[in-house]
TrEMBL record:
NCBIfam families: Xnuc_lig_assoc
Name recorded for this polypeptide: Ligase-associated DNA damage response exonuclease
Keywords of this entry: Exonuclease, Hydrolase, Ligase, Nuclease
Gene Ontology terms for molecular function: exonuclease activity; ligase activity; RNA endonuclease activity
Keyword Chaperone: no
Phylogenetic classification of the source organism: Bacteria, Pseudomonadati, Pseudomonadota, Alphaproteobacteria, Rhodobacterales
Native source organism of the sequence: Paracoccus liaowanqingii
Domain of life: Bacteria
EC number per UniProt: 3.1.-.-
Length: 330
């Protein structure tokens, strides 16, 4: 069986004909396999959803218990129609997984979803999965993107808090995964006191704690007087009246895109923190080198740079040009 007979792009997303399922479809389908809980990969309305237990529970928190008619927890190797599938840690956010698609005859394909190889205290570490075809993102698929150690970025935050003790530090971080990672990194870096969180982060942060992840003392950032110097909020909050309750705040933002200083200036970010839950250029090329697949498929991001690198390494590659995925939510 040829690779494109096992998995190929459609308007709804990656489709597997022998299994009659889609991976991370962008519209409702009868059967979906979901890599992780971010909204550009996990949508409500599918007839049946297979994902890790944590991803299913995150989807229920975000969309309600009736987000699908049928849930199936990914546990070990499962047969769906004419293929077997298995889920493996992606290191991106809590519950995130790569999906291996294994036909009885034909190449083994691994769909990585979004993945990260930097240590992440709030989720399982990335697990290399040998394969014939590797489907990768290329969010930061240019040599200029080389993310620093996240803990070093936290030392910059701590230094700023020490330099400006009277100014609240408001850090923008995506509500699922990034916010909890920033909190956990702050704890690792030595911030022991209360951290205030925007109300939009409360339920997902509570879920991380329920899963055994220690985020330390958290207080709501909804009171008129917030009793914490460090405040974590979703980026959307910075465009609302909520931010006006803080006097002379230091505005920070945690994202891989903060390596592009022009983006930081455009957003009025005084303290850009280069913390990403995606692979950078050294990590994506390292991963492909280690896996040594026969072919690389690229789902989204800077396709041309990674395709050129693959060509120089003698590895076949192709862009899938799937629509509906964000490079890294801001």
């Amino acid at each position: 069986m040829r690779a494109d007979q096992i998995l190929h792009p459609t308007e709804a997303g990656l489709y597997c004909p022998p299994g009659d399922f889609y991976i991370d479809p962008v519209r409702p389908v009868p059967r979906a396999l979901i890599t992780h809980g971010h909204g550009d990969h996990a949508r409500a309305g599918h007839g049946a959803v297979m994902a890790t237990r944590q991803t299913l529970e995150i989807m229920a928190i975000r969309y309600g218990e009736d987000f699908t008619a049928h849930r199936q927890v990914a546990d070990g190797v499962a047969r769906i129609g004419g293929v077997q599938v298995s889920f493996h840690p992606a290191g991106h956010i809590l519950g995130s997984a790569q999906i291996a698609v294994m036909p009885d005859k034909g190449p083994k394909i691994v769909v990585s979803g979004d993945y990260c190889r930097a240590p992440n205290p709030v989720c399982a570490s990335y697990e290399p999965v040998p394969c014939d075809i590797f489907v990768t993102e290329a969010t930061f698929g240019l040599p200029v993107f080389r993310h620093p150690d996240p803990l070093l970025e936290m030392t910059r935050l701590i230094a700023s808090m020490a330099e400006f003790p009277e100014r609240p530090h408001l850090i923008g971080a995506y509500a699922l995964g990034k916010a909890q990672r920033v909190i956990a990194l702050a704890r690792q870096a030595g911030i022991d006191g209360p951290i205030a969180i925007h109300g939009a982060l409360q339920r997902l942060s509570d879920y991380h704690v329920e899963q055994g992840i220690d985020l330390g003392p958290l207080v709501p950032a909804t009171a008129k007087e917030v009793q914490a110097q460090l405040v974590i909020a979703p980026p959307s909050a910075f465009a609302s009246a909520w931010v006006q309750r803080f006097s002379d705040p230091v505005i920070g933002f945690a994202s891989g895109w903060m390596a592009v200083r022009a983006r930081a200036r455009q957003r009025g970010v005084e303290l850009p923190l280069v913390i990403s839950d995606h692979v950078d250029w050294p990590q994506v090329t390292q991963t492909i080198t280690e896996l040594a697949p026969e072919e690389v498929w690229i789902t989204h991001g800077t396709e041309e740079g990674l395709m050129r690198w693959c060509e120089l390494q003698g590895i076949a590659s192709r862009p899938l040009r799937l629509v509906g995925y964000e490079d890294e939510p801001e």
